[in-house]
Amino acid sequence: MVKAVLQRNQRLWVDSVGAWGVIEKIIPVWARGFDEPVKLTYDLGLGRKFQGHELRAEAASDPASGETWRILRARNKWQEPGDCLHHPFPGTYPIVVTDTQDWGGWRTPGAEYDRYTFKIERQARLISQAPALQAIARALVDLVADMPPDEPPEIQSLALRAIAIERYVQELPQPLQPARPVSKTETTE
Description:
Layout: E1 11-14, E2 19-22, E3 25-29, E4 39-43, E5 49-50, E6 55-57, E7 60-62, E8 67-75, E9 92-97, E10 105-106, H1 110-115, H2 117-128, H3 130-145, H4 153-170, H5 184-188
Antiparallel strand pairs: 1-2, 1-6, 3-4, 4-5, 7-8, 8-9, 9-10
Helix pairs in contact: 3-4
């Protein structure tokens, strides 16, 4: 039995061709007596069908943290693909997954996606690239730390902004103080 790991409209690197492609169709191969497909192939519109081992999903990762964030496409339950042809990927909306088990992350309601389609697509790409941007900011801070003090002030200013953003990301808000229990004598007065 085979489970689909890749999704329709997902951008992939095709090793055997050496190019990027987008899955147009997932083709299951069924066998009698089985409840699930025994094999899956993927049609990317490149002239032939590809197997899963030939394809590599696009992923943004921060090598230092080992995090891999990626965009998956979820089926829009409220709209048929024909009803939303103005979307970049009709019938789906983006989900940024921040966990290896495809849990957690960022999602948007379908109604909001329909109103701000291109804004949401941009946000999904930006969020999925956040670990890579954070690695660049850290590298900039390390580079400036090794520079002599007479280097350009613009670079030093960028490093200070990167430090402030990193501090904001790393700091957790303090929990609210629990309410003091009210004693019976206070309530009767």
